[in-house]
């Protein structure tokens, strides 16, 4: 056995009571040799000073309490925070005209707090709130950097006007505004520009009059003189180069590092970069023989960048921190405008922040182990683009208080071979054992081995450990939650019966290979509940009076009844009507429960089928199946089955309604019309027949009366014949 393992084992001693640990106990797996190592293992770890039979002094605090260690004897230091400087953020408005008591830039506060101290314990986070408010009328320095290469010719006038417009708009934001101006073209070496003498004087072709090429030029340092800015911007002329990318990065670098020459103040600094082309990237300079990386220093002579041929390169508040010590992590969570909350990578920023807006950040700092050997560290957090910052002093808790109190070197409790601290011996090098009573060089003897055999068996420490100084030191398991224990390592806490793949069903603890069940549980695997409340039916009877409760589950004795409390009867009358409305709303989205379907009708699993032949049949399943046929408000029939599969309710429904077909209108109308016509014709025929019969009867009557009539012959006295006879007097009767 390794010397370090032996030392740890003897310090820990022997313990025969097994307590189930939570999965992934980092305290035990750390195998801490002393209290300092223990509290560095995790935030929940504690060290017990008390003289009690413990398998390990380093464990989770709650586990130590459960195993008899008093609170006063548990070393469990906690981290703290102290806010040292907490000046409130400045609330001020922009003042028109002359302000007599105008604060200096260093007197304006935009971030709170400004300084604090954190005492960090391993794995125990410390959080604090940071407030940021963009102060109104805060001084601003703006530097306008313009591309004067030939490709900007078409946009030159717009760029000039843009600079003037920027100055006017910024003066509306703050009364303390400085503006500067610079320009750039390209590296002044081949192949970026032409180095012929004529092209160095005028790089443009034809009659174009251009200024000589240059890398970067500081035309106007930061000033409050707006007229001078307008004048210099208006006088700018374009230059020329040969390639498409420009030397913008060189210019940006010089603007950033040449603070004295540019005139930067310790206020908000803004850089406006105006170009129409891309940048040269690192390595591009090799074409011109430039191999040195940019040194990040200022190289302006007479406001002109001289080293371009040697090197190459809000509306949002973003927090940034300095380099963190190894083992220290920091997390941000932002509370921005309009209730927007960001975390993780976005937690360090807030967008759409205007002047006067206030946002809050919650910052959490966590350490692991004992960074920097316990020495204090200082980190700083600041919003990008602002000079204000928060200073955080980090102190690391690496030792326990008991390691400084009541420490006895060469203690008699440690056989004069170790230091007694925090209730345990810390053995000198080369000594092992709970009381440092053995030498690590001593070999096991037969006498020592005899005390490590149970009942004079041949197995030393039950083959689960080694005999050291006459005491069994049990083996460590790969899983730190699994442990051998007992005087002869005959016990363990992982070889008990399981239920649902859980040790002791998750309802007890494994003690020496037997389950000790929690109250209201029984069985070898503690998987039988003694609680009958789960078997109570709605009528308060156990299993509805139709079954028996076994391990908290109803076993129905009446085959017609099913369900968790033997209350469901799929084949009883009324089942179809009971579930009709829920089946209707879930399957077809209609019916009286259409609006409350989700709340009232989610108690069964719905399965749709294409036609009635696909519905489950009584012989298809080992449980009863009820076939139902119901009609909706539109006289449409729908078909479904209802069954209970153990505790699951299943409804199979035909996905199409069986609705009666509508009447054929055309035949009906044609029939009605034909009927009316036929009835009319029949009436006319009847009327004609009756008229014929009537006429014949009248004619016969007339004939009869005519025959029976007797007329007297006489001359009408007033009758005068129509014939008049005239005798010709001359007629003599001769032919």
UniProtKB/TrEMBL annotation:
Gene3D superfamilies: 4.10.1240.30, Cytochrome c1, transmembrane anchor, C-terminal, Laminin, ligand-binding face of the semaphorins, domain 2, ntegrin, alpha v. Chain A, domain 3, von Willebrand factor, type A domain. Residues 34-400 form the Integrin beta subunit VWA domain. Residues 688-734 form the Integrin beta subunit cytoplasmic domain. SMART domains: INB, Integrin_b_cyt, Integrin_B_tail. InterPro entries: EGF_extracell (IPR013111), EGF_integrin_1 (IPR040622), EGF_integrin_2 (IPR057073), Integrin_bsu (IPR015812), Integrin_bsu_cyt_dom (IPR014836), Integrin_bsu_tail (IPR012896), Integrin_bsu_tail_dom_sf (IPR036349), Integrin_bsu_VWA (IPR002369). One of its GO terms (molecular function) is fibronectin binding. The keyword Signal applies. Residues 1-18 form the signal peptide. The chain crosses the membrane at residues 665-687. Keywords: Calcium, Cell adhesion, Cell junction, Cell membrane, Cell projection, Disulfide bond, EGF-like domain, Glycoprotein, Integrin, Magnesium, Membrane, Metal-binding, Myogenesis, Phosphoprotein, Receptor, Repeat, Signal, Transmembrane, Transmembrane helix. It is a single-pass type I membrane protein. GO terms for cellular component: cell surface; focal adhesion; integrin complex; lamellipodium; melanosome; ruffle membrane; synapse. It is found in: Cell membrane; Cell projection, Invadopodium membrane; Cell projection, Lamellipodium; Cell projection, Ruffle membrane. Residues 576-664 form the Integrin beta subunit tail domain. Its main location: membrane. One of its GO terms (biological process) is cell-cell adhesion. Disulfide bonds join 27-400, 35-45, 38-69, 48-58, 204-210, 258-298, 370-628, 398-402, 422-461, 427-436, 438-452, 467-472, 469-504, 474-489, 491-496, 510-515, 512-543, 517-526, 528-535, 549-554, 551-597, 556-566, 569-572, 576-585, 582-659, 601-636. Belongs to the integrin beta chain family. PANTHER family: INTEGRIN BETA SUBUNIT (PTHR10082), INTEGRIN BETA-1 (PTHR10082:SF28). This is Integrin beta. The gene is ITGB1.
